[in-house]
Amino acid sequence: MGVREQPRVIPSRLTRTLYLCLPLATAMNIHVLDLMGAASPKPTGSPGLSEEAIFGRKNCTNCGKPESSIWCQQCAEGGVGQLRIFYCSKPCQDQHAVAHRDVCEARRLLSRAVSIFMELWTTFEENTFSSKVRFVNERNGKIFLRLRSARSDEGTWMGKSFLEQFPGDAVPENARDALKKAVLFDNACTEVFSVGLSFVKILLKRGCLQEANIKVKDPALVVDLAEHPTLAPFGHNLLRVKLTTGEIFAIDFTGAQFGWRDQLYTWDTYVQHRVKEFNSLEPLGGAKQQDSMVYCRISPTSIGGASRAFRTDVVNEGLVKGLVTYFVQHETTVKKLLSLPPSLFVRERAQLVNHLKHSIRTRVQKPCDLGIGRLYFDDQFESHVVSTSEEALKYQNVWLSKEEYSANKGNLKALRYIWKKKVASSS
Question: Which SUPFAM superfamilies does this UniProt record tie to the protein (predicted)?
Fold first, then answer.
């Protein structure tokens, strides 16, 4: 009997895919019941923490006086979290200016880096979204989705792309932003540290980085499957960053899946208010190594394997190469960009983000124009993904037209007969 994989080895985004694909789960020596961890947490929290929870008594950083009302505006820059250094008076702030300088710069650069990462990663997730989920409803802070079985998917018969439109059917077009982001980032936390690792390292290389895996507490929203509400992720991944100043922060890139607004917290605040318990704390790169142990067993032409390869390519060739190209063309670096005065930073940030968003979309569209990413059936009628333009040409005359599919929809025997006949005639 083989050794069963430990739950933390399973990439969170794969848990629901494996539930649908029992042969794959069996081949990987994973029991479906193992994927169904403890019941999903209840939505008992709020989108943002209260000022009391974050700042406590608001003690003056210089003299310790409580209930201080002045704070350093530069530390609070970024819009990704509530970070404030309080002072009871302007004289106290002036006295502390020299001691505060390095802390202020480090906090500001970190906030700016996180804000850039989040905007670009959101664009990346939207343009490479491939989750086969459909929105059902939302009740009392729980968002219910339904998984669509690949075998009943018309996309393979007609050669549609494995990519899905977002929000598409996954989320109502008129849904509030928090609901859209909860679905977009659902079960996506390990992706940041595996697929996006190279991009994380470039933007956040100034600190000592560790990956933390936790069980969350007090989410504001919970995304669940309507059929199996206990199919919950094993844990949630975030980044622990220790700056050269000694301050430690938590960066929760995908906390929006729990309805949380902020991405950047002081470490102690995050641990106190967001963490139920720790599963692990390890050096950066652990999630990527663990993911590799799973994906090496998955066919590169399967939907899971192709999706991983496609997303990795978009990060490397769209995000990372686009970032390097931008810095070369503008004769700058990450540190120089993040250190600019506020008005200049806003302008340069907008240019960089627009450049990289275009780079992401171009990298996604280029293979799609060649037919790469379209779905097809093998001889056993298992879904696979076209990986080359030559393969796309091979199936060009095999895929069913919309009219052919509609005329035989629901008649699996007829659909398979037509498919086999077309394959034979195209050989």
Answer: HIT/MYND zinc finger-like
Cβ neighbourhood burial of 116 (10 Å; 0-12, 13-18, 19+): buried
In a domain, 353, yes or no: no
Q: Which residues, in sequence order, are CB contacts of 191 under 8 Å at separation 6+?
A: 11, 13, 311
Residue 93 lies in a domain: no
- Do the domain assignments include residue 157? no
Q: Whole-model pTM?
A: 0.88
| pLDDT tens-digit series, residues 206-249 | 789 999 999 999 999 998 877 655 545 558 999 999 999 999 99
Q: Which domain does 215 fall in, by range? A: 7-47+133-149+164-285
Apex CA 7: angle with CA 4 and CA 11, to 5°? 115
Does 418 fall in a domain? no
Closest CA to 209 of 264, 249, 252, 269: 249
C-alpha 276/C-alpha 150 separation (Å) is 35
Residue with tokens 């106190």: 272
**d(Cα 117, Cα 393) in Å, to the nearest integer?**
37
- DSSP 8-class letter at 177: H
Burial of 413 (0-12, 13-18, 19+ CB in 10 A): exposed
Q: Which two tokens stand for residue 169?
A: 């059917």
pLDDT tens-digit readout, 28-46:
443 333 444 456 678 888 9
Domain count, the chain: 1
